[in-house]
Structures are given as C-alpha cells and as structure tokens.
Amino acid sequence: MNDHSTTPPTTTTATTPPTTTATTTATTAPAVYTGKAAPDAAADRGWLLGHFKAAGDPRHSEDVEIKWGVHPKGDERARWVTGEERTALQVLISGRFRLEFPGRTVVLAEQGDYVVWGRGVDHSWYAEEDTVVLTVRWPSVPGYRAEAPGGASSPAPFEPPVAAC
C-alpha cells in the first residue's frame, strides 16, 4: 500500500463484499497515489497535498492544502500567524493540542475534536501532549511560508505554506 507511485489510468475492477463491483475505465480514471501519512509528511514538513507538490502529481492542488502534523509534547508555534489568508479545519487524531485565538483558547482533547477558523483569524498553538493533527486549509496560497525565528525563511525543498497546525 505504500508504493509512493503515481499509477497511470487503467481499467480497474474492484469487488466490494458481498457482490458490489466498481469499474473505472481508462478514460475516467485519475492518477492514483498511495502512501503513508507519517513518512510522506516528514519529507515535506508535514504537508501531504497543496500547490507546492509538482504539477502532474495527484497531490498537487491550487484549491486545498492538507497537513499531517506530528508534534512532540511541548512543541509550539514560534510566533503567531497574523493576516491569515485561508480558512482552516484542524482535527485531532491523537494527543492534546491547544490553539490560541484572540480572546479565546480552544483545546482539542479527544480524538475527532476539531476547530474551524476563517480568513483573517490570528492564531498560535501548543502541543500539551505528543500530538497528531490533520489540518485542511483552503485555498492553497503560493509563496506563503513560515519564517524561522529571526525573520529568515525556514529552509525547505519547496514553498510550503505557513505551518498553522
């Protein structure tokens, strides 16, 4: 299941128990990518999908960004995100994660807890325990990336967005 490859469109028949059969033809099948979130995310600072993936990669999108955020206990955002240009959804997979918003604190404490915030909402975060969160943001904004402390752009093999999760 972790072949990390793009499969060209082909005719595929999959049987779903007990008797349902789904068929996809070469004219309608999009490219398929399979992988594992943790190792794929580690390669790109947590990002699995967005504008920063290569054109032609099924994970390339101008519309949405998806991040698998793995945060050790005590991990925190270096500085507040200000002037956010996207809407975001963050879902707790495991652990305990605190998000700070102007005048409000939200703690994601149980698997499946989530928070949504819109454009223009400043925020920061802190991992109260070893934590995994899934973040979905839209739209995917080119050139929007985190800066390292001191104002220098953080090194990355691509132009990922600000790490808001």
Write a concise keyword list for the protein shown above.
mainly beta, single chain, five-stranded antiparallel sheet, 12 strands, disordered C terminus, 165 residues, globular
Question: Could you describe the 3D structure shown?
Answer:
The protein has one helix at 37-43; strands at residues 6-7, 12-16, 20-24, 32-33, 47-49, 65-71, 87-94, 97-101, 104-108, 114-117, 124-127, 131-138. The protein has 1 helix and 12 strands. The protein has 165 residues and is mainly β.
Sheet having the most strands: 5 strands, antiparallel
Spans where pLDDT lies below 50 across 5 or more residues: 5-27, 147-165
SSE pattern, N- to C-terminal: EEEEHEEEEEEEE
Q: Total number of β-strand segments? A: 12
Mean pLDDT: 78
Helix content: under 10%
Percentage of residues in strands: 35-45%
Regarding quaternary structure, what we see is single chain
Number of helical segments with 4 or more residues: 1
Structural class: mainly beta
| Strand arrangement in the largest pleated sheet | 5-6-12-7-10
Distance between the termini: 26 Å
Instruction: Note the overall shape.
Output: globular
Gyration radius, to the nearest Å? 18 Å
Can you describe this structure in just a few lines?
By secondary structure, the chain is mainly β.
Which secondary structure elements does this structure contain, and how are they paired or packed?
Elements: E1 6-7, E2 12-16, E3 20-24, E4 32-33, H1 37-43, E5 47-49, E6 65-71, E7 87-94, E8 97-101, E9 104-108, E10 114-117, E11 124-127, E12 131-138
Antiparallel strand pairs: 1-4, 2-3, 5-6, 6-12, 7-10, 7-12, 8-9, 8-11
